[in-house]
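Listing 4. Sequential folding, example run.
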Amino acid sequence: MSGFMSKTFAKYLRLGLTPRPVRGNWRGGEDMYSLWHGSIQYCIDDWGDYENDSNPTYLLECINMRSVIIERNNKIVAEVFSYLQERLSTDIWVRVNGGSQLNCTFGDSTGPLAHLLMDFIDRESFDSAIERVKGFITDIDCSHIEYQEKFMLMITSVDSSEIFKYYTNPDIDVVLLQ
């Protein structure tokens, strides 16, 4: 964590938020702060951007994404969070990521365990993302790509796949590494 005497910490306070140290942080999370919601340790990590160039864009985007995820998908995030806590008996963090698609990363002191890809902020964001992909892929027919109702949980390693091999949720497709 970059510290309580940093510009980033002061920015959170000016925004009316009270960040806390991340429980179970990993060595790559030195710029992460946790903003708890109930029993879930949601984290924001701007990778030091605000500290280095005072540009709050990504920081504000992640704070907004956290609010949207809590509003729309907190129940599913809480389920995955609880599943991990039960199996690992350690502190779990949920890092909110920016972008047009709602997504977060679950991790512990060893690092990221899985990425949960959720719905897009709105239908226009989905359509825009598809158009960008179509621009890169000119030799493949993309007309069959449709808006997905299910979320995707992408596991980050073979070891993490062992943790998730019995996880089931009708609203989530789990992608295990073999």
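-- end of first protein; second protein begins --
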Amino acid sequence: MFEFIHKKKEQPTYSSVSLQIRSYATSNRESPEWQLELIVDGQTLSVDEFDHLDLDCFEAAIDTPGRHLVWNCSCGTPACAGIYEAVKSTPQGELVRWELLDHQRDHRFRRADLRTVLRRARLSMQKLSEIDWKLPT
């Protein structure tokens, strides 16, 4: 006698993703500094406290397989902040898997969710850049 067992195909579990913009004042600038923080499953996802999300590399990591330095130092040189390998991206249909090489974790995102975060980040940064931050004298 044979028994057939039908196994239901498991649906992938996706990480929730959002963006937070943090500002901080600097003594030598007329406007505040902005830092984009990626929030994954309710926690800030970063290499260290002072890294910056690089939106161009973030976009590449949505669609292009390979290694992407989605975090950067504020000076523009990832190595300055000790960032050498950040994300190994593996896009597969609506799924994008990110393996965080610095922290040895991985997350699965919906591609549409990452695109929404990217669009909102660019729009927010554009609006912030249009504000005149100079204090009246």
